[in-house]
Specification:
With 325 residues, the protein is an alpha/beta fold. Helices cover 50% and strands 9% of the residues. α2 runs antiparallel to α3. GO terms for molecular function: ATP binding; ATP hydrolysis activity.
Length: 325
Amino acid sequence: MSSLVAIIEFTLNRVFLGSPGTGKTTVAKLYGQILVDLGYLSNGEDTIGCEAIINKLEDYRLTVKHLRELEIDPRQHVPFNFLFRGPPGTGKTSTARKMGQVYYDLGLLSSAEVIESSATDLVGQYIGHTGPKTQELLEKSLGKVLLIDEAYRLAEGQFAKEAMDEIVDCITKPNFFQKLIIILAGYDQDINRLININPGLTSRFPEELEFASITPDDCIKLLTKLLQKQKSDFGLKINGFDLDALESPRPEFTKKLRSRFTRLTQTANWANARDIQTISKSIFGVAIKSMRDKKIAICEDLVISSRSAARYASANHNIQPACSL
């Protein structure tokens, strides 16, 4: 049993039931990889979140398996249109890729490819241009996954509304119905606004996945894991890599770090895992510059330092270093 499968099945107390060749290993491996992509899983250690997503995929797999046992076409009973709700950096794009792979392995798509797009790819520049442009993108995505990020922009302006109407109309036609996965992604409030403008979306996109922001404690865990990966990557190339400040933190330091992340995660445009990756790179960059005798040390002062994470947060979120790491 691979480490990822073991982690999914035992760390999350999940058991994937079914006959050979019904996708159990695929679901476990792919969702293990989602956890890795998000930074929530590292070298067989622990997991943070993603349980709801795993439950959904396992439900779809079991539905397909059981219906095929009854010789019933499963396409009528599994969703092909989704709303992904959540802020940036919470795994929406990664989940779309893994979902495409699972549907492909279950024989529901002809390709695992994800076509990443935005309103710009759908909205025309003059009257009569939007409809054909939208249809062209849908045709290009047949048998694949079409991910429309920042979907709220389809609620802005007449041409954008025309694109949304075209999508709603096309996905019920035989040429497109259940022949591709369509995902509308964006902030929760923006998705709500889009639905209010086009009530037909509710019935066309009945399935929703919530992608929650990372908590301050999870921010600390992810930051630690990212720096631990740097430590592991360097291996024997260096004479030492001191990460005790995060691997064996003092309670006082953990409290201070939690407070800083609490403030940072409440700022506008906070991008969750994406921003933590940037903070990690900034901290590591300062540590490399300070390296002596091939020894790297990441101490408490460096993690909090205005030269590293605080400088990044201040520049990107218009807040003072005291409100950042």
